[in-house]
Write a structure and sequence with these properties.
By secondary structure, the protein is α+β, with helices and mostly antiparallel strands. Helix content is 31%, strand content 9%. The protein binds zinc ion (ZN). The site of zinc ion (ZN) has 6 residues, from helix 1.
């Protein structure tokens, strides 16, 4: 199952992180549900981590 959108789980700013107004590449992906990944080093890594997070949530939601 390919999850591209999941209600309640969005990645603000496509995973981009700003610190004190400056873009930075290092930091966790933060989902709107409160989930955070480990520190990552690119927007692509954060989007991938978030995609996996949604996949995990969707899979867990289908289990009894
Ligand atoms: Zn989430």
């Amino acid at each position: 199952m390919n999850v591209t959108r999941l209600a309640g789980h969005t990645l603000p700013n496509e995973g981009r992180i700003t610190v004190n107004g400056y873009r930075t590449n290092q930091g966790p992906a933060v989902c709107s549900c409160g989930w955070t990944s480990a520190d990552l080093f690119s927007d692509t890594s954060r989007r991938d981590a978030h995609r996996q997070h949604k996949q995990d949530v969707a899979t867990a939601g289908r289990q009894p």
